[in-house]
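Fold Annotation — chain and its backbone
Encoding — discrete vocabulary of local shapes
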Amino acid sequence: MVKVFVGVGHSDAAAQPAPRKSDDKPTLKPMVEILGKMIDILSNMNKQLTKLADTLSNMHERLTKLNNELQRDQAAMLAMLATQLAASRQPAPQPRPRPSLPDPFKLGKAGMLDVWLLQMEGKMRIDGDAIGSPEVQFYYVLGQLKTRHAEGCHSCSRLCRGEQALGLQRYLQLSLGYL
């Protein structure tokens, strides 16, 4: 195929680069310097990425520990709330029952001891829980004696403090002089 050029100064020689002279060699020095700088930049970036990865790893470990602590605390709080809820659902303690019998008369005459003891034993049997513990019951009985007999019971109580099995009737009989 034949090339035809229209116009002046156009030839095949103009399309090709000018021939190089032997002393016109390209220098690689600027390219090597640029590549060295790029390697330094990449190396610094790699160091920074390594530090960032270490920081992220440390943060991940700390977050994992905090999450575990949070879960333990939540479990402890749930257990505490469950205990409080269970305690709040327990029935309230029942108030002490009210006495149903009237108080016996105050013993003043020794001849009335049998009647008084019968009333007092009934009172203790039926209303003993309403009155309180055995010690409270003892002082209740003493409160139902007139002064003269109460003094004798107090004297006897000092002598019989160690005697746990002494029944109320026997104690009062000893205190009041009835054997």
Residues 29-89 form the longest helix (61 residues). The chain has a mean pLDDT of 77.
